[in-house]
Amino acid sequence: MAEKRRVLSVYELGDMKACYVITEGGCPELILFPGDVDASDPDALAEEQSWSGEDGLLKEEKRLQKESLVQAKLTEDDGPAGYACGTTMRNSRTVLRMGYDGQERIENKDQVEIRTRLRDERGLSYLHFLTWRKEEYSLESYVMFENRSEQSFGLDMLSSFSLRGFTAFAPGDGHGQMKLHRIRSRWSSEGRLVTDSPENLQLEPSWSEWSVNSERYGQIGSMPVKGYFPFGAVEDTKEHIVWAAQLATESSWQMEFYRRDDDLAFSGGLADWEFGHWRKEIEPGETFETPHAILTVVRGELDEACQRLTYHGKKYLKEQPESEAHLPVLFNEYCTTWGLPSHENIHGILQALQGHGIEYFVVDAGWFVEEGKSWGDGMGDYIPSPVLFPEGLTALTKEIREAGMKPGIWFEIDNAGRDSRIYHEEEMLLHKDGRVLTNGSRRFFAMTKPEVIRYLGERVIGQLKQYGFSYLKMDYNETIGVGCDGAKSPGEGLRQDREASVEFVRKIRREVPGIILENCSSGGHKLEPLMMSLCSMASFSDAHEAAQIPVIALRLHRSILPAQSQIWAVIRQTDSLQRIVYTMAATFLGRMCLSGDVTNLSQEQWKMIDDGIAFYRLIAPVIKDGYSYLYEHRGESDRHLTGWQALVRVRTREGEYRGKQALEAFAVVHVFAAVGRKELVIELPEGCPRKITSVYRATGAGARTEDGKLIIATSQPMEAIAVYLE
Questions:
Q1: Where are the beta strands (DSSP E) in 271-419?
Q2: Entry pTM
């Protein structure tokens, strides 16, 4: 039988409601509802078990066991039952010993914060924070653990969030009604949405409710978007309600879809002892705060829930340099020189770029490389090459500015390559099991050491100031793995190191005011909210010349703001005009960055590029402040593309998340192989402008609007067309 529950409190937070439900003798559970749900009647929630079956006659009892909005596991406590060990650390003896110790609501002009305190008899306190910033469409959740006892305790697991109540609108266990969403990622194929049912993942409750089922997933190491994005969502397909969450962290993390009764639970935070070898010793009087999670709920579709999460980052854009307001066009020379930039070849590139509206010129990897060696093994010393730059970087940056552009430069801050001198300075580097941690040809600076910060302050920050760079591309091309020495556990060593690395990024921002920071980790391995909050933009992928660039760029709208998604257009001398438009149109899905054979292009090719730059400038306000509608009608393969895709992005009044009447909009359509029909019909969103006033294309593709639809007349495979609507 289900245990009697009551509503402890309900808070209206914008268009969401946070409902705290408690079972006698247990801890509060956190349930999020859309704002139109009446969650104020305790009896209505307490009697969840009295739903009718599908035939309207069968009464199906909803079986619910105790849950908690804080999930923790102490080293000293027994593990969970129900065959859980090795599968999950949720609902251990640590949770069973917790009790409710009060709640308070704190409000000021900017935000509402709800603090819920749990404690146990040993003097251990768990303070759960749920914060809503007014005018936002998401919440922040985190937990602070405080040891008020007289002995130390080991934390093996502590969640940033734990949600419940997903089957509140469904009979029984909601079979056939629930979907679970994750976003997978691998190098040069980021952002792939995968959807499962609880049934397919064997997350159905057992007949006895004894066994525990969990789908625990995440990432181990210092590339937080390697394998999965730190994201998950639960969808009620009949009620059209979606709950979604992101984690803001640079180290190992996990999320769990968990089940032992008729409801689901969804939690996440740092990777625990079982999953990520994380354990932290908390001494008497000490506290520990988890990474922050971003949560939302909406009556709508998955893509809307995702954009509510990404919209959370818009406030950080206000802290970026003034030039970011208009999303300037960039040029990066990497796909021109392939790691061998020199003053001589950059001089020729600058000559070719003048007059085309490029505002930033970024010198990528290799400016420090020794003759006969590769840049990939040479990073760490960062001494400008006297062979490649005989006049020094001062002369180079002066020439870039004289060409009408602002200079930028590449650093792989945290790593040292085997050809560098610093690679052999073992006291400056991370260790694991007593040995220098070496993965491939790279080692890793020990970012918690003051001498390392002094060294990087000189080599990175010092040179940014010395040569007057306005832009810093921060790369990161290897992962630490499970962790390192220096703490109670490898996972805690990793967490401390990554925390120090993030603090160094903050140091750069403080000491080089106005600099633009690009977040790059092999293209897309750090596309998580914490690093994105500190950077103007991120490299969306390393798929620089692959046909799937628009595919990756489109689906990243679910994970990061397009105003922060830097997409490369690598133009080759052999490219047809059709290929140039296909490539340039992909950058309309985010930020435009050019590269390639710019010194050898024809006037006709440059004309098509210039037209693309002009179109990008036209739509830049919509990229910056718009709302995205994604249309995906393609096959499963990223490498062998079929079908087509489209983006319609609309802008309402400035700062508005979503509205019925748009001021302007644009659409970008990419046609792949085997479309199977000559006209593609795109249902335009309600309130979207219908008048096409500008078109960017190279082929015979056509576009018109008719009865609230955008109709694209295709002409051939692998083509693109973009239209501006007002």
A1: 280-282, 287-289, 292-299, 330-332, 360-363, 406-411, 415-417
A2: 0.96
